[in-house]
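Q: My labmate handed me this sequence with no annotations at all. I'd like to see what the chain might look like in three dimensions before we decide whether it's worth expressing. Could you predict it?
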Amino acid sequence: MSKPHAIIVGAGFTGTATAHDLALRGFDVTVIERGDICNGTSGRTHGLLHCGGRYAVKDQESAIECIDENIILRKIVPGVIEPNGGLFIALNESDLAYRDAFIAGCQACHIPLEELTPAQALRLEPNINPKLLTAFLVPDGTFDPLRLALSFAATAKKNGAKFRTYSEVKSLILDGQGGVVGVNVLERASNQTHELRGDILVNATGAWAGEIAEMAGASVPVKPSPGVMVAYDQRFVERAINRLNTPGDGDIVLPQRRMVVVGTTSFEIDDLDYVPVLEEHVKLMLERGAELIPGIRNARVRGKYMATRPLISSGSGRSAARTFKCYDHKETHNVDGLVTITGGKATTLRAMAEGTADVVCRKLGINAPCTTKDVLLLSYRQYYSLPN
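A: Here is what I predict for the chain of 388 residues:
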């Protein structure tokens, strides 16, 4: 009996994690990506392994997802994570007024936290603002974005998944009833177009999910929300430093290798494939980052870049939820054979893949449980040595 064939469009965090999950459940999997692994948003994240603290007050569903997946990722892919922890620090009375709600939110979402005196916080991180009023130690971490995706992709490859990079979906192949049965793919290296057919198509293109869905006459309520980040050439801290307040622009500083990254802003765009790195946003990152770590003001800029978040359109900008949703387009638009996964965070990639694979299996009448919580991932290096 032949295996069911799943075609996944998008080789970012969600696409690679879904390939891993479906390969473990016995699927033939083909991943189509118009660039290389992490070509889009996933390759431009600042790399925060969320503990959920940022969402514990206003978006507790997302906060619980983050702390649960934080724990799982530390177990299954430790080689790409720095389990260095994080601090939420208060610098003024507005921050301090957020303290009680933050404590209550973290407790409600089972996020461990420990309040520190300013002196205790400065002993841990001498380069943070010495005028801080209080601080909370939380189990944040950092990860290398490309290596995280490659670890999922390598393990999927080991289990038979095929990755076709630099291959762009130009249109969908529909049956006589409007159901999706495949894709027309442009191989960008050869400039040749050909058909690829499968039993199910998973749209894991993040901020571009609406464009793929429209090819089938469907839609998804995705609100692309770009943000600008700036990297500086000194590693001032060992932990993720967060502002103790409602999430806002430039309120995180993350250590990455020998640098720190300050992020991020939030704005709206018309063209997904051209997002400017606005100079006023770069200046704002300097100002806000220097409030948390004064030494940033004298550091050299290593890079200015942006990423476009695929937020579910239940609000605008920072008011939109950070949770994820999987859409079976047979239910939403009477388009069979197409499933879209969008929203979420890098930290929740495994859970997003599990939810997507559950929908795929249900649609195809397959009884195969998820095992990804316990499967240790291969080294990211093996993606390049395993046969495709």
